[in-house]
């Protein structure tokens, strides 16, 4: 597959830091839009939603990496950690906007986390990502060995929580969050172990 | 029988936002200068009601007939034809008929009312409405003995209301009030904002305004008013009965299952606007609390 080779060749030339820079550009851009009316008449919720959606998209990109290699031979493995850490960054920013700009009242923050199922779910999703972000470095991979791979399977839990959180935020059943969940479930299904055929009984 | 309710703000026939704000400031200054027979408290209360800008009022809307996004209404409501417009008044009335909107306007006394507006989504505005009391319109039709409720219906016209092509709501949008709520002097039919004709995205040509209830009760672009003796099932109650009730009175102590109603965000404050406490009955407790005497408001939400 010459196309695959070309993609792989190109990917090898792209420095990791370039991906970080490219994907962090939306942050100052969104802040600029929020300040200048570009995010509509209520910029706080709009900013919060934009950051959350980018986080979910980054998690989905992260989920695409290994199927791309397995099924299409496209090798982007060296960017998997990049997308994971970028996703964590956006989830953290999304949470920060909610804490500081949206609610801003300590007592209400805690009450919301406890009382509102969609916030509880979102919060769990964030907490699950924390140990993954902390162990996203070569030293941790070496230290943890086989445990590292098991631990980082928690990304599947986080991404499902993120998608469910997105569905629950809406006042009515809306199509967009359901599409996200569908794509995520599809990508996770690709990882299910194939049923062994011709099993000897 | 217009002017049953005395606004603390007395600017009428306002035509221009800048002029309006100007005159308000002049009035405030005059009042503060003891030129008015008002208590200091009344002045403070009116000064606290800073009207939301025209742009905010007309560009941040929920009107699912045009889409679920906040900017969908301003983007797509231009397609709606609002003239000619007919309002069918039927049910338990002496003079059931299809009333032409122009004829209604001729019969009514339009006044200005500056009301707080609180959405169930925990955001709020202050809106200078123009309109008339619903009671006056109901008088024209003649409410019969035994009537208990009023049912309202929004236009159903998918050719002009693009949101009606999706069926997650059982169109047309329906709302309802108890008769005493409908007859209350605070309840009005709004036909204008800031002295201008009400824009399509805000419910042209005629919408209900019930300032002590969450915004979804203030049904837009009304084509039918039915006087009845049974409680209508309103659209949001039908969609999510656990979250939205028939009464929908603004109440900081009764939370929405998914968010707190104790505070609200005032639209127009930008990225760093803080939440403010939500007032019981949206600040109209004195006027309307008696309507709900003895009712458990957490049960009748």
TrEMBL record, chain A:
Record GO cellular component, one term: plasma membrane
Cofactor note: Binds 1 FMN per subunit. Binds 1 heme b (iron(II)-protoporphyrin IX) group per subunit.
Keywords: Cell inner membrane, Cell membrane, Electron transport, Flavoprotein, FMN, Heme, Iron, Membrane, Metal-binding, Transmembrane, Transmembrane helix, Transport
Domain Ferric oxidoreductase: 52-162
One annotated GO biological process: protein repair
Record flagged with keyword Cell inner membrane: yes
A Pfam family hit: Ferric_reduct
Chain segments annotated as transmembrane: 14-34, 54-72, 84-111, 117-139, 151-169, 175-192
Bilayer topology annotation: Multi-pass membrane protein
Compartments in which it is found: Cell inner membrane; Membrane
Molecular function GO labels: electron transfer activity; FMN binding; heme binding; metal ion binding; oxidoreductase activity, acting on diphenols and related substances as donors
HAMAP family, alphabetized: MsrQ
Role description: Part of the MsrPQ system that repairs oxidized periplasmic proteins containing methionine sulfoxide residues (Met-O), using respiratory chain electrons. Thus protects these proteins from oxidative-stress damage caused by reactive species of oxygen and chlorine generated by the host defense mechanisms. MsrPQ is essential for the maintenance of envelope integrity under bleach stress, rescuing a wide series of structurally unrelated periplasmic proteins from methionine oxidation.
Family (UniProt): Belongs to the MsrQ family.
This protein's name: Protein-methionine-sulfoxide reductase heme-binding subunit MsrQ
Organism encoding this protein: Roseobacter litoralis (strain ATCC 49566 / DSM 6996 / JCM 21268 / NBRC 15278 / OCh 149)
Upper lineage: Bacteria, Pseudomonadati, Pseudomonadota, Alphaproteobacteria, Rhodobacterales
Gene: yedZ
TrEMBL record, chain B:
Reactions it catalyzes: L-methionyl-[protein] + a quinone + H2O = L-methionyl-(R)-S-oxide-[protein] + a quinol; L-methionyl-[protein] + a quinone + H2O = L-methionyl-(S)-S-oxide-[protein] + a quinol
EC number, as in UniProt: 1.8.5.-
One GO BP: protein repair
A Gene Ontology term for the protein's cellular component: periplasmic space
First-tier enzyme category under EC: oxidoreductase
Cofactor(s) the protein requires to work: Mo-molybdopterin
GO molecular function ontology, one term from the record: oxidoreductase activity, acting on a sulfur group of donors, quinone or similar compound as acceptor
Protein's name according to its UniProt entry: Protein-methionine-sulfoxide reductase catalytic subunit MsrP
Function in brief: Part of the MsrPQ system that repairs oxidized periplasmic proteins containing methionine sulfoxide residues (Met-O), using respiratory chain electrons. Thus protects these proteins from oxidative-stress damage caused by reactive species of oxygen and chlorine generated by the host defense mechanisms. MsrPQ is essential for the maintenance of envelope integrity under bleach stress, rescuing a wide series of structurally unrelated periplasmic proteins from methionine oxidation.
Residues the entry annotates as binding Mo-molybdopterin: 61, 64-65, 119, 154, 202, 207, 218-220
Modification after translation, per record: Predicted to be exported by the Tat system. The position of the signal peptide cleavage has not been experimentally proven.
PROSITE patterns assigned to the protein according to its UniProt record, in alphabetical order: TAT
Domain Oxidoreductase molybdopterin-binding per the UniProt entry, residue ranges: 82-236
Gene: yedY
Subcellular location: Periplasm
Cofactor, how bound (note): Binds 1 Mo-molybdopterin (Mo-MPT) cofactor per subunit.
Keyword tags: Metal-binding, Molybdenum, Oxidoreductase, Periplasm, Signal
Main location: periplasm
Subunit structure: Heterodimer of a catalytic subunit (MsrP) and a heme-binding subunit (MsrQ).
Similarity remark: Belongs to the MsrP family.
